[in-house]
Design a protein that fits this description.
Strand order of the largest sheet: 3-2-1-4-5
Helix content: 25-40%
Shape: rod-shaped
Number of domains: 2
Strand content: 25-35%
Largest sheet: 5 strands, antiparallel
Distance between the termini: 40 Å
Number of strands: 7
Radius of gyration: 32 Å
Number of helices: 2
Structural class: alpha+beta
Length: about 170
């Protein structure tokens, strides 16, 4: 069986997109569950919205165990947390990629992470099941095809007057 180049490229693109979505969706959960915890110094801006809810923009700076400084930012929304005004808060970061961090105060698993993981799994599974083989022509039943067109050398039915492929008139003896 011959492999179809276009279908192979589509299959590769779908699986690659699925893997990229899986990676993008799993960064925050990986940092949260596998990261090392440290303390970060925090600068924040608290803005009041409607119904007593607040939006807080947080800029934080933390040091890794090797002593390098990294920074990040987060946006928190909801009721004002009475303990938030402190200047030190817990942060988790990945030791191999210390710039990937999660601000733990008010952290919830983002919906987009779940959405990216689910759509990534869908693309990977769909890509696996895409068939990359060309359909082969059905083999004719023995006995029905007895003639070959002299012009295009295609097999034709024995009771045909014209070739189905090139349209040439078939001359038969008999």
């Amino acid at each position: 069986m011959k492999r179809s180049f276009l279908k192979t490229m589509i299959k590769t693109a779908v699986i690659t997109a699925g893997l990229l979505l899986l990676i993008a969706g799993s960064v925050n959960p990986a940092v949260f569950f596998l990261g090392h915890e440290t303390t970060a110094s925090v600068d924040y801006i608290l803005t009041e919205e409607s119904d007593g809810n607040y939006s807080t923009n947080v800029d934080y700076h933390y040091y890794t165990s090797s002593g390098k400084e990294f920074s990040g930012n987060a946006t928190l929304a909801g009721k004002q947390d009475e303990g938030f005004p402190s200047k030190l808060h817990p942060v988790k970061y990945l030791p191999l990629i210390p710039s990937c961090s999660v601000f733990l105060t008010g952290y919830t698993l983002p919906f987009r992470s779940i959405l990216f993981i689910a759509s990534g799994l869908f693309f990977v599974i769909t890509g696996i099941f895409i068939k990359t083989y060309k359909k082969e022509k059905a083999t004719p039943v023995q006995g029905e095809i007895e003639f070959i067109c002299p012009a295009c050398e295609c097999e034709i039915d024995k009771d045909s007057i014209f070739c189905n492929y090139c349209g040439q008139k078939i001359i038969t003896k008999g």
